[in-house]
Design goal:
Helix content: 25-40%
Oligomer: single chain
Radius of gyration: 19 Å
Shape: elongated
């Protein structure tokens, strides 16, 4: 999506641990968005939990950048700064878990 010929809407999806305080997550994300000068303040970013995913909750962040070329830069900056802010505040990102079960026939020795 674009608002003008140069601005662009960006989307960032973050999966936090299922027991996370989502209000705190939103507060931290808003703080980090304010620090990124390439992100527009109007329209305001939307930050919403959108689904359960495995052991976590997916939070979707929609925001606007002033210029198309700044889109990937802002995503990288936000990921770096959010990771640090979450770590500083004890918020865990959800890690996909996979369980592997190895079964042997009853007559086979290990």
């Amino acid at each position: 999506y674009t608002l003008s010929r140069h601005s662009k809407r960006m989307k960032l999806r973050i999966t936090v641990a299922g027991n996370t305080n989502l209000k705190q997550v939103e507060k931290i994300i808003r703080e980090q968005l304010k620090h990124e000068k390439l992100i527009m303040t109007k329209p305001e970013a939307s930050i919403d939990p959108v689904e359960f995913a495995g052991s976590g909750i997916v939070v979707e962040v929609l925001y606007w950048v002033y210029h198309l070329k700044d889109g990937s830069t802002t995503v990288g900056n936000l990921i770096e700064h959010l990771q640090q802010a979450f770590q500083n505040n004890g918020i865990e990102l959800a890690v996909p878990l996979q369980q592997v079960v190895v079964e042997y026939p009853a007559n086979q020795k290990l």
